[in-house]
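Render this sequence as a predicted structure.
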Amino acid sequence: MITTWFDFANIGLIWVILLEQELQIPKYDTEEKIYSNIKQLIGRWGRKWQQTDIVIQSCIPNNEIITSIIDGNYKDFLQKVLQERKIFWYPPYQEMAAIRYKNKEKEACKKYLNSLFEMLKSFPQDEIEIIKIETLYKRDHQYFGKIILKWNNLRFFLQNIKSEIFKNKDLAVIFE
């Protein structure tokens, strides 16, 4: 969804299509990003006091995101999102990071991620949640895989183990 850095004059209609595809993105903050993007589109239409219509195409018009946007009910939407994040240990209630690894060879990428996953599990931290994402994706002739870590003191954990696992230049840590 393109919503930033554009400011066109004389727009008579804004149409959001295939919203269901956006909802299928498997990330904890997908709904929040959709809400934010659509609210930004609505804000752009009213910015120059021009008459503009907005249409949201959806097979599920009673979806909570859509009804929250239409009703302007950010408070209830935010409370729902925060409740879900608390249940599933997502930010801001826990720290979350993805350790991403890349390799030109698919099998080498899988093998390294498996060994890294086993190594991470061997560190004595009972409260840390370590999730290995089985699906690899390919971009620019490289295979990418990741392991997600969640804990309330993740930076401390990573600082203590960095000398053992972060010797590889193809590893990156991305904090959510």
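Summary. The beta strands are 13-16, 53-56, 95-103, 129-139, 142-151, 171-175. The radius of gyration is 21 Å.
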